[in-house]
Amino acid sequence: MGIPGEAGVRAPRGPAAAAPGTWVVSTAPGGVPLLGHALRLWRRPLEFLASMPAHGDLVAIRLGPQRVWLACDPDLVQQILMDPRTYDKGGPLYDTMRMVLGNGLVTCPQNVHRRQRRLAQPCFRPSRIADYAEVMSTEISAAVEEWRPGRELDVTDAMMDLSARVTTGVLMSTSLDPGLAAEVRACLATAMRGVLLRAVVPLGPLYKLPTPGNRRFDRALARLHHIIDQIIAERRAGPARHDDLLATLLEATDDGGTATGNDPAPYGASGPDTCPAAGRPTPSPTTREAPHAKEPLTDQEAHDQLMTFLVAGIETTALALAWTFHLLAAHPEEERRLHDEVDTVLAGRPPAPADLPRLAHARRVVTEALRMYPPGWALTRVTTTETTLAGHRLAPGSTVLYSAYVLHQDPVAFPDPRRFDPDRWLPERAGSVPSGAMLPFAAGNRKCIGDHFAMTEAVLALAAITARWRLRPPAARTVRPVPAAVLSPGPLPMVCELRGRPDGGAAQAVPSQAP
């Protein structure tokens, strides 16, 4: 029997569960002529994908003329992610994401990924993350100071604002002008909705027609590219030196160092009214590379990486936090435990990077929210050569899909998977989670380079907010995931309730009611 949830039912591993050592390969039922399963996937993607494990371990889904293979078993997903030369970044989602992100670290093909990773790695060394954490703490505290008791917030928007403030502060030393930051977020939302539509319903020629939707997409994309180009041009032309992520990126060279000094081993190495034309061309990856191995990033490479860091840095962390506050409001006992921890650790002051090791429960809360609602809920790969998956031959150019949302609801890996249970991530329990079952940041050499950055920001933000505020929905309501390129709760209205005493003493936990 499946596991009921807000978005559907995740079956327990499919028919192969009854036959150890065998794989079941099948085709999803319910396809229609011409479109196949595209309408079902577009209308109710989470519910549709969550129903697929009941049909097999590897399930074919038809999207118009294309066929996509959904890997439902964690072992198959691990096989895909640990062999990036055979299963390269590609497929409808990545092909359309490149319209927004170019060939940055997230979207570049494997043949240029090593260089991209080396160039970006100095930005994410442990010492740099520690420096960024100081900026994060300052920006988070400044953002929270602007809240007022009784104010109703859209928490999703508020977390986007906060994360944009943090991300731009870390990237460029100073936050974007608020009006420009809001424009960037609006353009990103329009562009990423267009990306999902083009990925799920891949009818290429239709997207060149001058429809209102296509025009909105083209305008948003052109504006984003223009803003990023302006930021890079201003930084290149400016005489001042900066100690921020963009400076590190622009000075990086292909040997993993920087143009101005020797760096230690990279983190993780061990284990306008006038815009350029919409439809900015995307050169092949090889034309984006600097002509010599140890030269720094070209302007185009810098553009693509900065766009990648903005999108990933803002949306992913913001949505993880929005889901976290939704879950805490619905589970007051877990909220009280979190309040106890932050009250003990912080004693009424803002969080600092040195507090992170003692904010263990806060980290588990964020991890569990990422399990239940992973922002990167579905991703694709494309085979570069003939290969076999689940005993089935895949031809070169086959598209393979995996869904972290589906994997994270596996009742074998996560008993009672629809229950919000941060204690799953206590050391004595987390060790029992099978390898490959928990993938909020992917795995292998294409694992998110900013996973530590994201968790640091999320834990600091959660501690800073819950030390002073309780966020409560004004009325009972059902929150359903909104799957676009990332998984969002949509508008999330909540009221700010002040926890701290007027004399500035430590915040006290107070009873709460689930919505």
Automatic annotation (TrEMBL):
<keyword id="KW-0560">Oxidoreductase</keyword>
<dbReference type="InterPro" id="IPR002403">
    <property type="entry name" value="Cyt_P450_E_grp-IV"/>
</dbReference>
<keyword id="KW-0408">Iron</keyword>
<keyword id="KW-0503">Monooxygenase</keyword>
<dbReference type="InterPro" id="IPR036396">
    <property type="entry name" value="Cyt_P450_sf"/>
</dbReference>
<keyword id="KW-0349">Heme</keyword>
<keyword id="KW-0479">Metal-binding</keyword>
<comment type="similarity">
    <text>Belongs to the cytochrome P450 family.</text>
</comment>
<feature type="region of interest" description="Disordered">
    <location>
        <begin position="256"/>
        <end position="297"/>
    </location>
</feature>
<dbReference type="InterPro" id="IPR001128">
    <property type="entry name" value="Cyt_P450"/>
</dbReference>
<dbReference type="InterPro" id="IPR050196">
    <property type="entry name" value="Cytochrome_P450_Monoox"/>
</dbReference>
<dbReference type="Pfam" id="PF00067">
    <property type="entry name" value="p450"/>
</dbReference>
<protein>
    <submittedName>
        <fullName>Cytochrome P450</fullName>
    </submittedName>
</protein>
